[in-house]
Every structure is written in structure tokens, then in C-alpha cells.
Inverse folding.
């Protein structure tokens, strides 16, 4: 292995403007996971369900575009462009993407005239052809003759209702037992319905809501707040569930020394665990903790090697030294990463970055995790 592989992935930044809309209580206990298969060279496809082509819009009044993308390996995000400029983007909450990913994308026109809206679906960096519609933006509502229709299946929103509500903007949003991805989902919320808000976390990254008699939590990354939410109090979350990852040290098998065939160690980064969708704090930064597991999958001991984490700016954070790792055993590390700008970032963990261990396989020491960083969600103080 060569130390320069630390920087082979680096950081790719694509600015994402995040907001959110709509929900329906589903009956599926967890968000569907797309079929696992090699990354396909087939481009995604995308369609726009609403608004209709050649409809009228009004300066200063928000437009909600409902679109859906499709790809056999999963669509990872949808992007909205207004007159060729990116104005909104929605990211799948599933790191693998969704084979059918639907979302609301939002734009408020600032000038009258012809407005061309385009939606592009992405499978990682593989883009679809754009789906396009043309709207006629008027100065005043009195000039409108073909009104922009509401998104298909959405709950009617009363603009003057001051009650704090949330509208989910992606299909299949997990309505969780607590404010975090480590809490199990109580239900799956679909695109188009409104949930009344009952609480929040102190940093406004998770919002508590009630559907019938069920109280759960939603990530701020995938909702839009409606009404007056200024007075919503911080809610006490339930106890954190017991971690599912446990380490069981494995000792090397006892074999008569004469029969041992000399072998080599093989270090593999088996896990890089932590959030992949992060809402930044109001100051534009966020510090997040990640768990890293490194295993010796070879047939010989590995002694005195380091583990490194490539930060979003390309610098390396040394996570520490492992004094000894016998075959089959895992070492666990905790790392804190501070993100400072919205967009997308890639974290890379490398076992033995300084090539201290002679391994049977020098090509499998790297593991990457793509993270989406979302602008903080403002808390509205007036009805929308």
C-alpha cells in the first residue's frame, strides 16, 4: 500500500440548497432499500408531475415542483434549475439511493417573464437528461389565467393557519422513535401530507410531530416548516437505543508450530459509521462523531500500525496506533469531524497509511463515506 492513496478520493463539493415539504403515514416499517448491484452505466430518468407546462406564476409566490427520478441502482438526488441556474436540490435519505425517488423542489420567482424550470436526476455523478417545463411569471395575481396547480396528492395547506406544521419533501421519510438515525422507525411518511409539530431538538435539526396517536421524530433535512413555529419547546427524546455494533475479540487459533504456514496480515476498514445527511448549525458549522472499525482479515498478526482519516479539506487526522491486531480481531476508533459549509463531502479512512505492515492485499485498506451538508433550517416566525 502507498501513503498517497490517502488523497485519491479527496473532496468533491456540489452546493445543495435544501428545503422540504409533504407526508402520508405508510404501512412499511422501514424505508425500502434498492437492489444492490454493480453501478450501472445506464443514465437515470426523470419526470415532472407538477406544475403543468405553460401555467402562470406570480412574482414573490413560491412554486413547488413535484418530480420523480428512476434508476435500477438508486437515484441519489434530484436537482432543480431555474433558467439554467441551480436553485434547489433534494437528497435521498438512503445512502444507496432509491430506485424510485420522488421529491418536492421549490423556487420563488423574482421577476416577471418566461421561466424555464428543469429537473435532473442523479445516480452519484451520473446525470439524467433534464425534464423541462415553461411557466409564465406575472407581476400580480390578477394577471393569472392558468394557475399553477398544487402538487399531486398533497394536503391542502391553509396559508393563514398559524399552527406549526411540517410538510415532508421526499417519499419514504422515516418517522422515528427519537431524534437520530440510531432510533428505529415507527412508520414511513410519504410525499404530500402535513404533520403537526409538538417539539424539537435544541439545535432544530429534528422535529417531533404527532400522527393520530403516534408521536415520532423527523429530520429537518427533509421537511419544510409551516405556520408560526417560534414557540415550539425543546422536547425530551426517549432513551437512546442500545448500540447494535459490538466487538468480540477473536484470538488466533492454536496450531502446532511445526504445521504453521507463514502468512501475512490483511487490514480492512470494515465500517465507517455515522450520519450521512447533516444539517449545519445556525453558525454554518457542525461537529459530528464517526465510528471506525478496522479488522485483520489475514493469517498473521499486525503490530504497531496507524489508522488515518482524510478530512474534507484533504488533510489527514491520525486516529491512533494499534499495538497488536491478531487475525480476525477488530479495532475501534472514534473520530470527530467539523464541517464548515453546505454541499457534499467525502470522508476517507485508511488503515496503515504509512505502509508499516507487509500485507497479503495492499488494495483494500481504504473506505469512503459521502456526506451531504445542508444549510440550517430557519424557524419561521410568521405564517406562510
Amino acid at each position: 500500500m502507498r501513503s498517497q492513496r490517502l488523497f485519491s478520493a479527496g473532496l468533491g463539493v456540489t452546493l445543495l440548497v435544501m428545503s422540504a415539504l409533504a407526508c402520508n403515514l405508510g404501512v412499511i416499517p422501514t424505508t425500502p432499500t434498492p437492489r444492490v448491484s454493480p453501478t450501472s452505466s445506464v443514465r437515470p430518468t426523470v419526470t415532472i408531475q407538477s406544475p403543468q407546462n405553460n401555467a402562470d406564476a406570480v412574482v414573490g409566490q413560491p412554486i413547488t415542483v413535484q418530480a420523480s427520478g428512476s434508476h435500477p441502482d438508486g437515484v441519489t438526488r434530484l436537482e432543480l434549475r431555474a433558467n439554467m441556474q441551480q436553485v434547489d436540490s433534494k437528497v435521498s435519505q438512503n445512502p444507496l439511493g432509491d430506485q424510485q425517488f420522488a421529491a418536492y423542489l421549490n423556487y420563488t420567482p423574482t421577476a416577471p417573464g418566461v421561466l424555464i424550470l428543469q429537473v435532473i436526476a442523479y445516480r452519484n455523478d451520473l446525470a439524467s437528461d433534464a425534464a423541462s417545463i415553461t411557466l409564465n411569471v406575472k407581476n400580480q395575481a390578477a394577471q393569472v389565467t392558468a394557475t399553477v396547480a398544487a402538487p399531486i396528492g398533497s394536503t391542502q395547506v391553509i396559508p393563514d393557519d398559524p399552527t406549526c406544521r411540517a410538510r415532508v419533501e421526499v417519499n419514504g421519510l422515516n418517522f422515528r422513535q427519537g431524534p437520530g438515525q440510531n432510533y428505529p422507525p415507527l412508520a414511513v411518511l410519504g410525499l404530500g401530507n402535513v404533520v403537526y409539530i409538538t417539539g424539537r431538538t435544541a439545535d432544530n435539526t429534528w422535529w417531533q410531530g404527532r400522527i393520530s396517536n403516534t408521536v415520532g421524530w423527523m429530520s429537518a433535512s427533509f421537511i419544510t416548516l409551516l405556520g408560526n413555529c417560534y414557540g415550539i419547546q425543546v422536547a425530551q427524546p426517549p432513551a437512546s437505543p442500545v448500540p447494535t455494533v459490538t466487538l468480540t475479540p477473536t484470538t488466533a487459533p492454536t496450531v502446532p508450530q511445526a504445521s504453521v504456514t507463514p502468512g501475512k496480515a490483511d487490514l480492512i476498514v470494515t465500517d465507517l459509521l455515522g450520519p450521512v445527511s447533516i444539517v449545519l448549525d445556525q453558525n454554518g458549522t457542525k461537529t459530528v462523531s464517526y465510528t471506525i472499525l478496522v479488522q485483520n482479515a489475514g493469517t498473521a498478526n499486525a503490530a504497531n500500525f496507524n489508522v488515518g482519516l482524510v478530512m474534507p479539506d484533504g488533510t489527514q487526522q491520525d486516529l491512533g496506533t494499534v499495538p497488536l491486531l491478531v487475525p480476525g480481531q477488530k479495532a475501534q476508533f472514534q473520530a470527530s469531524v467539523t464541517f464548515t459549509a453546505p454541499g457534499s463531502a467525502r470522508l476517507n479512512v485508511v488503515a496503515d497509511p504509512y505502509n508499516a505492515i507487509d500485507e497479503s492485499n495492499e488494495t483494500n485498506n481504504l473506505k469512503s463515506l459521502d456526506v451531504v451538508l445542508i444549510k440550517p433550517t430557519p424557524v419561521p416566525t410568521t405564517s406562510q
